[in-house]
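FIELD: query
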Amino acid sequence: MTSGVPHPIGEPLGEAFGGFGTDGVRGLVGAQVTPALALQLGYWCGQVLKADGPVVIGMDSRRSGPMLTAALTAGLTAAGRQVWNLGLCPTPAVPLSVRRTGAAGGLMVSASHNPPHDNGIKVFGASGAKLPKVQQQAIEAGLRGDPIARDHGFEPFGTMHERPGLLLDYQNSLWQSVAGRRLEGCKIVLDLCWGSATACGEAVFRELGAEVLVLHGTPDGSRINVGCGSTHLEPLSQAVQASGAAMGFAFDGDADRMLAVDSRGRVFDGDQILYLWGSALLEAGELSDQRLVATVMSNLGFERAWQAKGGVLERTAVGDQYVHQAMEELGAGLGGEQSGHILSARHGMSGDGLLTALQVATLIHSRGITLADWLDGSFQPYPQLLVNVTVPDRERRTQWQACEPLRQAVEQAEAAMAGHGRVLVRASGTEPLLRVMVEAASQADVDHWAHTLAAVADAQLNAA
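FIELD: result
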């Protein structure tokens, strides 16, 4: 394409488009995320994705989802592409459908764990993985009005087809993932977060024989993630303890991650998931090089316990795409984030909260123990505290290392902990937040330095 060719979807967005974040495009609907953006993003995805095959679209329960899905569909069909609409579904249903049908790629309309007024768009390539950087850059160029090279042409317009049956294929894949393990006699609480997990979460657990109690179990875009789900575990913890359930699972808005609680209300996070699932694979001789992949956020207690088993823990930057990349490069079978975003090589390398929950539940139940039993015998995590500091200025947030007082404060904290703790400061890739994490053998050190550093960051980076 050259700059002289007219756009069938209006003028390019230019510098108004801020680019892809660590997990696609995300922000406040009507401000950062608009129908105009979705229309053009759909069009340029249609130009950049591989030439043959449909494009699959799914969404979570947010009230802005149908609007943005319609705009994406308009853009894709303007590019001559055929669109298959799954409707309400967990994010992992989209890449699974892409892989199994030979689709050109997929789009998921969701802001994940963000509040209801936000929304976002995740883009998957033909492999089912998040879109490679080179294709992201080509889409960004199109959105900004720069000429991009295209080696294929399409019909003047495409068509859209409703494909709810693809959700049934996804459910079947979840049942197949547990290899015949069942859950009879196991009482489980599910917090479906008013979001994507409501599409099939209860059904997949009941089909395996579990006795299920459901919280926030209908799709409600005005309440998605509000005081519930994997970012607010209190309702789940209370329900598990009050009902005498063996365990409980909470999902985020698009169900690509999961956190659990045991019968005593203790949190079972991504590190514990990797340790449990990894141990099962290790015992079965099914974990290549005894290697797990985690991020810099994973707990030192987890790392040292895994090393004591003879295992290797590789660390990456925060973000499932970095975990995915490292797993491919190293041939690792399992990896993930402390937040409960887990990737399994044998199950398609897509973060999937429902699949992870089924694996945890059936592995525990098949051993004749409870989640509480497992936690009692598991590793002892180091105290860790994450403090989020709102920093609206993107340049100050992403270039925080240039702030000399903050950098010196971090160095002071690390020196004071003298090898018995660590500090991690990073800018969020999806929200206007600077995340300050401190981990140490001493809870007092953790509390002191996390709040001290957060206060320095707030004062320095938000100064007029």
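FIELD: remark
The CA atoms of residues 31 and 314 lie 38 Å apart.
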